[in-house]
Amino acid sequence: MSQPAELFETKSDYAYRQVRDRILSGELQPGAVIQQRELASQIGISTTPLREALRRLKSEGLVELDAHRDARITPLRAEEARDLLELRKSLDPLAAGLAAQRRTNTDLQAIRAALAAVEPLPTPPAVGQLVAHRNLHAAIYRASHNDLLIAALEGLWDKADRYRRLALQAGRTQAARDQKANEHRLLVEYIAAGDSEAAADVMRAHIDTSLGATAVWRLGHENENTGE
């Protein structure tokens, strides 16, 4: 009988996974100072593997470290939200179009199974609900059968989740929630039908009115009000 992968993790890998999950779930808030001894104690490790994990998270843009080893969660920034949105406007429609051209029967089964688990995100969303949305998009990405594109979009999704949480703080109307559900359904239909142009068009509209787009507007509006 095989053993869980976690049993073979290093302490640094374990710390990385634990801290990263806490950042992406919102438990560790953007801009918050990391009390390293306290956090290491909570996770059940020493500070050495925690510092190694923090350096790894710094390379992903989720943590900031200074010369004195002080650490904090990277704040949310309007510029990063904009950059993420711009990239996704280009790459997500490309992935959807390629998925419509290249998907296999196995891909379609995975996409449909992921769609069945998705429900409109409430305020605030549970981690599992965010994961379900990610799983649907990830299944579409994988169906593109372009490894570089898949890796790029997976990395963007990690950073974008924090901005989705920010956008959801203001709540969404039922009409907006229904619109997103319909877009998900149409995406799957067009991919299954092999209609790459329609799939790309729906994905483009999906990103244009996404939570990421709402975060760009909200952060830009806040900066205007504060004069930054």
Automatic annotation (TrEMBL):
Tell me the superkingdom of the source: Bacteria
Q: Which SUPFAM superfamilies match?
A: GntR ligand-binding domain-like, Winged helix' DNA-binding domain
- Residues forming the HTH gntR-type domain are 9-76
Under the heading Pfam families, the entry gives: FCD, GntR
Which region is the signal sequence?
none
Which GO terms label this protein's molecular function in UniProt?
DNA binding; DNA-binding transcription factor activity
* The entry's keywords: DNA-binding, Transcription, Transcription regulation
Name recorded for this polypeptide? GntR family transcriptional regulator
Q: Which organism is it from?
A: Mycolicibacterium agri
Tell me the lineage of the source organism. Answer: Bacteria, Bacillati, Actinomycetota, Actinomycetes, Mycobacteriales
